[in-house]
Amino acid sequence: MRLGRKGWNNVIIFSMLIMIFFLNGWHKQLFSNIDAPSMQPVLPVQSFVLTLEFVDQKIERIGTSWRTTALQNDVSLRWLPSEPQLGELINRWQSIELININESVVFNPRAPLYVATFELAGESLPWIYLLYKDNAHYYLLEKSSQRVLKLDLATAKQLFPSFDFSQSESN
């Protein structure tokens, strides 16, 4: 079988496309380690927080300042923050980066320890974060994407200041 000039041009074009396809895929596989856990911001970069709601209180932006409101009338708040502390808490959530866990983590998805719900400017749905604990570690599950982030006790206490961690440590 003899190919003409047009046939050989087609063979060369298709072989180059196949070679580019394989080299591009090989390049991405060779230089990226998928199994390695990576640091990821908890909230989207450059997000603008309007409200942060815990089980017992709601923190909302009022102009350039923050205020907190108790959500349960019959329960006194464990954490009564000042306005600068509210701003620090929001900044901590916006700036913190945690380790993204790729492997499956065993915890009871129906029994979160605590919940944080964010309303962000420009987002139609709230961002919901559930705090879980296994034997040794705490985990933060982002509800919409099912992304699991690992955090230590000190970081968990910083992000959830109104939660009583002494109860979870005894379990």
TrEMBL record:
Alphabetical UniProt keywords: Membrane, Transmembrane, Transmembrane helix
Transmembrane regions: 7-26
Domain of life: Bacteria
Name of the featured protein: Orphan protein
Lineage: Bacteria, Pseudomonadati, Pseudomonadota, Gammaproteobacteria, Alteromonadales
